[in-house]
Amino acid sequence: MKRTKIVLLSLLAVLACSPQAGTSVGSCPDVEARVDEILSRMTLAEKIGQMNQVSAGGDVAHYADALRKGQVGSILNEVDPDKINAFQRIAVEESRLGIPLLVGRDVIHGFHTVFPIPLGLAATFDTALVCRGARVAALEASAQGVRWTFSPMLDIARDPRWGRIAEGSGEDPFLGARMAEAMVRGYQGSVPDSTSIAACIKHFVGYGAAEGGRDYNSTFLTERELRNVYSPPFEAAVKAGALTLMTSFNDNDGVPSTGNRFILKDILRDEWGFDGLVVTDWNSMGEMIPHGFGTDRKDVAEKAANAGVDMDMMTFGFLSHLEELVKSGAVKEKTIDSAVRNILRVKMLLGLFEQPYVDPAAAKAVQYAPEHLAAARQSAEESAILLKNNGVLPLREGLRILVTGPLADAPHDQLGTWCFDGEKEHTITPLRALEARYPGQIRFEPGLKYSRQRRDRFDEVTAAARQADVVLAFVGEESILSGEAHSVADLNLKGSQSELLAALKACGKPVVAVVMAGRPLTVERDLAHCDAMLYSFHPGTMGGPALAGLLSGDVNPSGKTPVTFLRTVGQVPLYYNHHMTGRPYNGETLLDDIDLEAGQTSLGNTSYYLDYGAYPLFPFGYGLSYTSFAYSGAALDKETYGTDDTVRVRFTLSNTGSREGTEVVQLYVRDLVGSVTRPVKELKAFRRETLKAGESRTVEISLPVSELAFYGLDMVKKVEPGEFRLWVAGDSASGEPLSFKVQ
Ligand code: BGC
User: What is the pLDDT of residues 184-241, one digit of tens each?
Assistant: First the structure.
């Protein structure tokens, strides 16, 4: 019986993520009428109560009175189904109106079954798989009573110092937008049912551009940059039916998001037609006081309410002051009504009024279902990026293998940031998986116990290396070194990990480095000390089996970099879709070429660093395979298109190697001349193609010309006619351009 239910739920997961699936839970007239009816019976105090969210943290008794009085609309940080039922029971059976609670949680990359960190998920370029992962998270979380996740995080991040780069899809607005839709569809499902959890798209907006990569810092994004780069994932998620949105901590050009009417009303509501719920980030209303944007809690409550915030997470500013602000006329009651409508609508759509309770016994059966673990494993396999391989991978059979490094057997750390509900007891580490795959062939010497550890000598591990045929070194970052509030100024491997790799390499044996991290680290010097490098980010519960499969060659790597990998931290920010300058870098003249006592010259005459040039270590979209691919015969169906047309490009993709593999085909465009300067390249389509050894296939990709629209000088989104270049390639730095015109 239980098994049948799990299979049925998994079927729902597949349906929600099929390309034909409707966008997601949507509003319907019946819901609006019911919302209005409830609203008409509410007192002002009860309305304000709905706008208040508290972190309940297990304390039912502490909040019982407030729940009875209708002073709480939502709780977060409670996942025990019995306690959630207890909270709901008070709200539903003991408060005057019986409105159920919305129970929220940061389910960021899986609930119990932990998937790779979102940056890793983006490296799969596999929207169907990412959608399935979000569905799995929804199935597990909803079974325990969590019906709202504070995910997906859609912040474009072009600065790997920022710890939260781990939580998003990287630097590209197009990839970010596709991942956003996939996650929203996965969480919410294609039809509202008891397994739907409301997505919360966050953090609106610009948070990833925090100055210096220091979390919570100010941003200074122009409106055009905000619209062309930072907003597209949000707009796509709104169109996909995201039910809720969270404001960000940062102030942009002096205005904190939680008090920013322009973004919350003009753009979000009026332009995009969002009718979901807007929640603040944790105390981001209160933080407008230290920001210097409000004098006290009453002042910031007024500013947030009038800017368009519906729910206050943990400032208690609405609960304490909205009533007097309405009475004084500073906040209109119709503002309150519309906020409460937005909240009730979400509760209604999720079916909470019909079924606020969960079955704790059934909840257990859903966690870690085999299908969930399989999806997590596939996600970890597809998210790993092969950055270097001189032929040591895949491993030959029969080798004596030394497994080393602080991440080889670190079940907590491989889960990555933001996984409150992941359990290390359920994690399979690479060491365990490799021991199972190569019985009797594995020796383990950690070398370093944790990623920050410093050591001068590596005697045991180098002695072991000399006796092995190959060394697998699992390095990277502990999970706590990335994520919220965990920014770093140095992007090199921490502690003595680079020294460990160098010492291992000096033993003369082939060294494979597997990097498990929350961000793209600067691994240039480490590349010199290994024969192959597999970058897996933090791969989650099933990281071990996934990596064992990749290293052994049972699975062929297919991940591609979702963010530019830098040579040194001083290159920040460096991203592939930067604007065309008047003096583009062309790879010439570095420091060592400068003559002694050279006279003042405009050396090189281009935009670059004397010591590091302006090229990255690995460009966006890069990743190797155990086979190779070739692109040939690319041609467009026309030379000139109208703005309503669709560009069709055809080309032959060939697997030129000796084993099956998957290529992430990428389509980039450059708009040569605009009313404002344009990016040198922009990703406009991607697709995963699996080819057998020696197989060739004709691939056709369609690109609606409307996809070329952007906010130009007049700040109106439109396609500007002119000349374009188009590439189909395996990364953002390859391929020969085709030309076309739009008129
Ligand atoms: C984070 C949010 C998160 C919230 C609730 C904040 O500190 O910025 O992303 O959803 O806490 O846990």
Answer: 999 999 777 999 999 999 999 999 999 999 999 999 999 999 999 999 999 999 999 9
Q: Which residue in this structure is represented by tokens 């039922």?
A: 85
> What is the residue-wise DSSP string for 465-527?
HHT-SEEEEEEE--GGGSSTT---S--SPPTTHHHHHHHHHTTTS-EEEEEE-SS----HHHH
Edge-to-edge, what's the strand order for the sheet holding 148-149? 148-149, 102-105, 74-76, 52-55, 312-313
* Best CA proximity match to 280, nearest among 308, 299, 321: 308
620 in ligand 1 pocket by Cβ < 6 Å?
no
Dist CA 55 CA 152 (whole Å) = 20
pLDDT value, residue 28: 67
Tell me the best of 282, 315, 421, 486 to mutate to test the pocket of ligand 1, counting ligand atoms within 8 Å of each CB and taking the most: 282
* Beta strand residue intervals within 411-468, DSSP E: 442-444
Catalytic residue among 281, 310, 421, 731: 281
3-state DSSP of 609-663? ECCCECCCCECCCCCECCCCEEEEEEEECCCEECCCCEEEEEEEEEECCCCCEEE
> What distances in angstroms separate CA 465 from CA 408, 509, 533, one per listed residue?
15, 7, 17
CATH superfamily of 385-552: Glycoside hydrolase family 3 C-terminal domain (3.40.50.1700)
The residue type of 653 is: L
- Which strands form 277-279's sheet, in the order they lie side by side? 200-204, 244-247, 277-279
Nearest alpha carbon to residue 521 among 482, 547, 485, 560 = 482
> What are 470's strand-pairing partners?
401
Torsion of CA 655, 657, 658, 663, to 10 degrees: -50
Torsional class of 44: left (φ above 0), alpha (ψ -120 to 50), beta (otherwise): alpha
Q: Is 484 in the pocket of ligand 1 (CB under 6 A)?
A: yes
Residue 473 has pLDDT above 90, yes or no: yes
148 C-beta closer than 6 A to ligand 1: no
Q: Residue 289: how many CB atoms within 10 A of its CB?
A: 17
Ligand 1 pocket test: pick from 102, 150, 203 the residue with the most ligand atoms within 8 Å of its Cβ: 150
Decide if 251 is catalytic: no
Enumerate the β-bridge partners of residue 661: 691
629-742 folds as Immunoglobulin-like (2.60.40)
269, 272, 277, 281: CA torsion to nearest 10: -90
pLDDT at site 595: 86
State if residue 509 touches ligand 1 by the CB under 6 angstroms criterion: no
The strand pairing partners of 534, in sequence order, are 386, 514
Mean pLDDT of 454-462: 97
- What CATH number does the domain located at 2-362 have? 3.20.20.300
pLDDT digits (tens, 9 = 90+) for 504-558: 999 999 999 999 999 999 999 999 999 999 999 999 999 999 999 999 999 999 9
What gap in Å lies between CA 642 and CA 738, rounded to an integer?
17
The label of the residue with tokens 């000139």 reads 640
Does residue 8 have a pLDDT over 90?
Answer: no
Q: How many CA atoms lie within 13 A of 293 on its CB side?
A: 25
Say what the pLDDT of residue 57 is.
Answer: 78
Rounded to an integer, the average pLDDT of 289-297 is 98
Q: What are phi and psi of 311, to 5 degrees?
A: -135, 140
Q: Where are the domains of the chain?
A: 2-362, 385-552, 629-742
Average pLDDT, the chain: 95
User: Residue 4 — very low, low, confident or very high, per pLDDT cuts 50/70/90?
Assistant: very low
Please state which of the ranges 19-23, 109-113, 150-154 shows the lowest mean pLDDT.
19-23
Please state whether the predicted TM-score (pTM) of the whole model is above 0.85: yes
Contact 474, 408 (CB under 8 A): yes
Mean pLDDT across 91-106: 98
**Residue 615: what pLDDT?**
95
